[in-house]
Specification:
364 residues, alpha/beta, seven-stranded parallel β-sheet, 12 helices
Length: 364
């Protein structure tokens, strides 16, 4: 029997499905519910720590694969590690997909902070427990986008991210939204890899000529085409942000080598958790890149961890509205939305006390 602190831990995976308040539509997919896998990590003193693996085409993992990875190789890895810190190091070397590793990584960070008796954000060095987020609007025609955008501004959101694709008239839609909301709100566009390089340049230039005044355009071309992303960045004045192109430190280094974009969107499900995300955030900022922390469609478990990471940045509009799409959150404790603000818990760790209706571990 392994005599280590990690051997006394209990790791389980739990399936969660939550209806969305409205369909979520991008250039890649359309969803009406959140499907996700939660990780619960318990120590011998009865503390429960949490992490999340969002399930989707974007993360590239299924619920079944997540179950097998968490309750198989990653459970074995955890039990073999002499300490939580060594488990975190070993986890980064695992061949499990990033989104699956992220759930266990975040739970380990949560537990370590709980054992130290301090909020995870404070342990990582955050000065504030408050983060501001944008709000996303799904791909749609101008007639549908405009009233939704106006309503969100009236609710207090100062930054809107509008999904665009090659099948809709993005220029007209964004021009009409700007006309309706006025000059003050911040508008972002997210293409989710929708365009070829030449088309991306044409659309962004037309948006510039129309004085839409976008603060950024996110991932206009396919993720693997960093040279193409660099070509777009050089051809337009609007800042371009890499999202799907940047998963690992190697991706970030290649983006910097090519000067492919001045901005990056870091997401825990891409980096494999907080360990590499913090490293990438610090490196990107040191190299002069602007960093935005993003999320997938996630429950308040994943949002709590991502907001913890975002709290390390100067105040800015982050991209953490994933939990606002849920019809109702089953998560007790953790980060809390108040309009465009996300308030992190001041309880130890992530501050999550439980999940309503979560009774059966996956695979049983």
């Amino acid at each position: 029997m392994v005599s280590s602190a990690s051997a006394q831990l209990s790791l389980s995976a739990h399936r969660l499905r939550v209806p969305l308040a409205n369909p979520f539509t991008t250039a890649v997919r359309s969803a009406t519910e959140l499907e996700t896998v939660l990780v619960r990590l318990m120590d011998a003193e009865g503390r429960s720590a949490w992490g999340e693996t969002p399930v989707s085409k974007v993360t590239g993992v299924s619920a079944e694969a997540s179950i097998r990875g968490i309750e198989g190789p990653l459970r074995e890895l955890l039990q073999a590690a002499p300490s939580l810190d060594e488990a975190l190091v070993a986890l980064q070397l695992s061949e499990q997909p990033a989104a699956i590793r992220s759930a266990v990584d975040c739970a380990l960070h949560d537990l370590r902070a709980q054992q130290a008796g301090e909020p995870l954000a404070r342990q990582l060095g955050a000065q504030s427990l408050r983060v501001r987020t944008d709000m996303t609007l799904s791909v749609a025609e101008a007639s549908e986008l405009v009233p939704k955008a106006v309503a969100l501004i009236e609710q207090g959101f100062g930054c809107l991210k509008i999904k665009i694709d090659a099948q809709h008239d993005a220029v007209t839609a964004l021009r009409e939204v700007r006309r309706a909301v006025g000059p003050r709100p911040v508008l972002r566009a997210d293409a989710n890899q929708a365009f070829e390089v030449a088309e991306a340049i044409r659309v962004i230039r037309e948006l510039e000529d129309s004085e839409v005044n976008l603060s950024l355009v996110e991932q206009p071309v396919v993720a693997a085409d960093l040279p193409g992303l660099a070509e777009v960045s050089r051809a337009v004045e609007t800042p371009v942000m890499a999202d799907e192109s940047i998963w690992t430190m190697s991706d970030l280094l290649e983006l910097l080598r090519l000067r492919a974009a001045p901005m990056v969107n870091i997401k825990l499900a891409k980096t494999g958790g907080l360990s590499q995300a913090v490293e990438m955030l610090n490196y990107a900022r040191a190299e002069g890149l602007r960093v935005v922390i993003g999320c997938m469609l996630e429950s308040h478990v994943g949002i709590s961890a991502a907001a913890t990471l975002a709290a390390l940045l100067p105040e800015d509009d982050q991209d953490l509205d994933g939990g606002l799409w849920l019809r109702e959150s089953p998560i007790l404790g953790g980060a809390e939305y108040r309009g465009s603000q996300i308030l992190l818990s001041d309880a130890p760790g992530l501050g999550i006390s439980g999940v309503r209706g979560l009774t059966n571990p996956l695979g049983e």
